[in-house]
Amino acid sequence: AERNRNWTMMQERAQKLLTHIPTAQPATGARSRSSDKESDSDIEVLRRAQRALTRATTEQQNLLLYDRFLQAAATGAHDAAVLAYGELSEDSVYRELNANRYQEMRLRFVASHSAQARTLARRSCREAAPHVDAVLAVWPAAASDPAVRALATRCGSQPLAPDAATAAPGTTPPALHAAR
Fold first, then answer.
1. Taking the CA of residue 114 as centre, how many other CA atoms within 13 Å lie in the half-sphere pointing to its CB?
2. CB 125 within 8 A of CB 152
3. What is the pLDDT of residue 162?
4. What's the pTM value of the predicted model, to 2 decimals?
5. Is 145 in a helix, a strand, or coil?
6. How distant is the alpha carbon of residue 165 from its chain centre?
7. Cα–Cα distances in Å, from 147 out to 28, 152, 176, 179?
8. Percent of the chain scored above 90 by pLDDT?
9. Residues near 116 by Cβ (< 8 Å), separated by ≥ 6?
10. Most confident of the ranges 11-15, 16-20, 71-75, 122-126
């Protein structure tokens, strides 16, 4: 069920296991080795079923977020796409699907907010700072870009993490350089 991303089926199967396997009770008196092994086996099956149920429930929620991401990406709404993708749990199977599309949306997001920050900084740093913060939140490696660093310093944006600029050398979005 997981391979096919059929989360409802996975939930049903896990629920069935959880309700049909008796929970292990501490034994009173003498126990045989075979009953100990059966009890241990039942406990392991229960643990696996609980993990499967949790995973299926989480992935159903992630599917809704992934659908929002796809809809936003299809309409070119990079802000909404980046936000929806960012809400996916770190271990979700949906993070791997369309990862290239997310990178495209992220580049557009960074280019757009960088341009807005530069434009607004001419008038008011208070208006520009949220855009710089958004860029750094979505792409921390952008902190190594001199233009972003200058804007962040000048406009009192969120402090840059000490290792943010060196975390991923060479990964500064090309859109930042093109829009200078």
1. 27
2. no
3. 44
4. 0.66
5. coil
6. 21
7. 72, 9, 8, 10
8. 38
9. 128, 131
10. 71-75
Tokens of 80: 């909404």
The residues near 7 (Cβ < 8 Å, ≥ 6 apart) are 1, 56, 57, 59, 60, 63
pLDDT higher at 4 or 149: 149
Spatial separation of the C-alpha atoms in residues 47 and 49, rounded to whole Å? 5
Residue-wise pLDDT tens digits, 2-29: 455 667 777 777 777 667 665 544 444 4
On the question of pLDDT at 100 being above 70, the answer is yes
d(CA 85, CA 104): 12
The count of residues in the chain is 180
**Are the C-beta atoms of 132 and 124 separated by less than 8 Å?**
no
Inter-residue contact 53 to 19 (CB < 8 Å) = no
Position of tokens 């992934």?
66
Low-confidence winner among 14-18, 68-72, 153-157 (lowest mean pLDDT): 14-18
Burial class (CB in 10 A: 0-12, 13-18, 19+), 95: middle
Query: Where would I find the H helices in the chain?
Result: 7-20, 33-75, 78-87, 99-121, 125-138, 146-154, 174-178
For residues 147 and 143, what is the distance between their CA atoms, to the nearest angstrom?
Answer: 9
